[in-house]
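Journal club prep — side note

Before the paper discussion, L.F. wants everyone to see what a predicted structure for a comparable chain looks like in token form. Sequence:
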Amino acid sequence: WSLLFVNCIHIYQVVGHKEGLDVMERADPLFLLIGLPTIPVMLILGKMIRWEDYVLRLWRKYSNKLQILNSIFPGIGCPVPRIPAEANPLADHVSATRILCGALVFPTIATIVGKLMFSSVNSNLQRTILGGIAFVAIKGAFKVYFKQQQYLRQAHRKILNYPEQEGA
């Protein structure tokens, strides 16, 4: 029941209280019984997709051909002295609690970002969708940039011998 309650809150946030109540009253009970639990499932599955890694791979592959990336982000198209070992995506564990909480709080964040960035849009649903897309895109861009900086830092890392101390 608490899951259905959370879904109702998400619907009220996304489309507005009055419109959400109207949609829930007009909807078929079977659709509500099946449809409402799929909302958090889809949010969790969407949170687990690592699309930033695909964008990063494309960025590394084609950055030398796109000169605009080199002017915006210096050091992107430059050859690296060595290619660092790729981290196993399965080794980069994110706790299930973090995925669950992030997925369930996403409609709230999308609503807030939509109200802040797209206040000129009249429809609550469109504003929330645009806010969600903007939030995911901005957060993803920061993640991609951060991972690329880590990659470059590891590629330029030099391993030196530890100097022996005299008298030891």
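L.F.'s comment for the group: The first helix runs from residue 2 to 15. Keep this in mind when we get to the figures.
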